[in-house]
Design a protein that fits this description.
Helices cover 58% and strands 13% of the residues. It has 289 residues and is α+β, with helices and mostly antiparallel strands. The chain folds into 3 domains: 38 residues; 116 residues, TATA-Binding Protein, CATH 3.30.310; 54 residues. It has a 5-stranded antiparallel β-sheet, sandwiched between helices. Helix 7 runs antiparallel to helix 9. It is elongated and about 80 Å long. The relative contact order is 0.12.
Length: 289
Amino acid sequence: MADNLPGRSISREALEKIIQRAAELQAGEMDTGESMTEAELLKLGADVGIDGRHLRQALYEQGSTGTAETGFLVRWFGPKVVQAGRVVSGNKATIEMALQHWMQEGEALAVKRKTTDRLVWERQRGFMAEMKRGFKVGGRNYYLARAHDITGVVTQLESGFCHVQLAGDMSRQRSASIGGSAAGGAALGIVGLATIGLLSAAFPLSLLGLIPLAGGVATPVLTGRAQKISDEQVQLALEQVLDRLEAGEIKPKHQQVTASPLMQIAEQIKGAISEGIEQSRKSQRRIGP
């Protein structure tokens, strides 16, 4: 039958529709009802010529996105959870060890929970961790430490490939932003209304009440914007971890050949202090005796 088909070209848009329709027809013949198992989905993909690895990737990407948040709070203050996912080469055990080492040494996080299906990290505490973040060791901003915790799920797709899903829980930070903006906005609004009421006898002066009233309106807007920027920075940091993992820059601890973290921190602190002293000397020379 294929030999009798005309040799016409098919556009990318048409190809996607054809494959989608073929999958629908095949699913109808399989009589799967309202749902199907993962094995049935893979068989369906094989029947229409979709590579199993690509289908598994799409399956886990769809499952990892969850239900998208909607509503006023999301638009103004961002989501409760920011996520990033990617398929990388390697096996599950090696990738998990590499992630665990990087989160501790490269992102100043500590293991919070470790189960068979996920790893959870939280902000690393202690003097050395604070020094590391304060001096931005390695030229990083350590944005992941802003999240309440970071969850990593590594799923083996097939031999040599895994899907890695990282998620940052921003719910506490967002709740604090919402509460702070509501309290601050309400306080400024009350002050503005009170000022207008007290000075209503002198119309020009009563306009002074518009200043705190405007501040009460602007506070939620500015706070929400700051929270969304923080979300974007955590999102970018998650993507950068996946970039390094994909490029093979993140290795398990036993494969690391660099200097110890303590020595790295010491060198960064030494460099920062030396730079500060040099800047101080230059300023004194410019000012003169």
